[in-house]
Amino acid sequence: MHGKGQGLSMAKTIGVNLSERIAVGLVIDHKLAGPVRRFPENHDEDDALIELHTEALVDKIAELAGMVAGGAKDIAAVGLALPGLVKDGVVEESPNLPQLKGARMRDLLSAQLKARGIDAPVTVLNDADGMAAGLASAHGKLDSMIRVWTLGNGIGYGRYPFAPGPWEGGHTVVTLDEKERYCGCGGHGHLEGIMGHRAMRLRFLDMEPEEVFAGAKKGDPRCVEFKRLWHRALAAATATSIHMSGPSKVYLTGPNLHFLDITMLRLYMQEMVKMSPLQSYSLEAVDDVPEMRVIGAAVTAEQAAGI
C-alpha cells in the first residue's frame, strides 16, 4: 500500500484537528514538520470555538494552514478531522460544534485555501478516525485494520482504514435496562450513557467520576458495582465490533484513560468472545496525544488523494 518512492516520502500534506481548539500541522512522510499551530492558544479559552460561526471557523483554519504551509505551493492534500458524523465532505451532525451541522466543510475549506494559494484536495473525516489513522501510522500498522476507543466526555470510536458508514460506536447498545437513559443523544442503553464523563456526572449527582473510581478502589459497594458495569459495557461494545467485522488491534485512549483497568477489561472480553478465529484481537492503552489526530488527518487525506 505504501512504498518508499521519492514522491511519497517527500509528499507535503496538512493535517487539521478541530475539537475544543483548532490544531494545524504540516506533515511530511507521516511526521510533523515544524510546530503545530493552535487557536485559541490559551487553554482557558477552550470553549471559544462554540461562539464562532461556521465561516469564521473555516477562515481561521485556512489562516493557520497558510501559516504552516509557509508559502509552499506543492501541498498535496489537506485533511480535516472534526467531531461529528461526516458524509462526502458534509457534516451531517456535530453535537459538540452544533453550528457545523449541515456545513459543506470540504467545499468551504477548499475555497478558503485556494484564496490563500493552497490548491489541494480536502478530505473531511471524524476525529476518532483521525486518531485511528495517526496511531496506525505511528505504530507501523498502515496495512492492518485497527480500532480506537477514545474515552472522554463522549465515547469516540475510530477505525482504520477508513470505510464508509457512521461508525458511531459510542452509541452501541450494551444493555436492555430501561433505566439506562444517560446518553446525551437521548437513546437508551448506550455505551456512552455508561462510560461518558457527562453521563457519569448525571448518574452520580453526589460524586464526580474521579471520586467514583477512587471509591471503587476503597471497596465502596456502589462504586465497585459501577466500575464493573463501566468495564463490561466497554467489553460488550468491543466484542460486538469484533463479532461484526473481525479481530484487530484495539487501542484505548482519551482523557479518561486513567479510569481503565485493562486486566478487568481483558477478563470480560474473554467471557464474551469465545469463537477461536475471533480471539486474535489485542488491547493496548496509549496516551492521548492531540498531534496524533493532526497526523492522522493528513495521512487519511494523502490516501484519499491516491498519493
From TrEMBL:
Official protein name in the record: ROK family protein
Q: Name one Pfam family in it.
A: ROK
Please give the family membership noted in the entry.
Answer: Belongs to the ROK (NagC/XylR) family.
Q: What is the lineage of its organism?
A: Bacteria, Pseudomonadati, Acidobacteriota, Terriglobia, Terriglobales
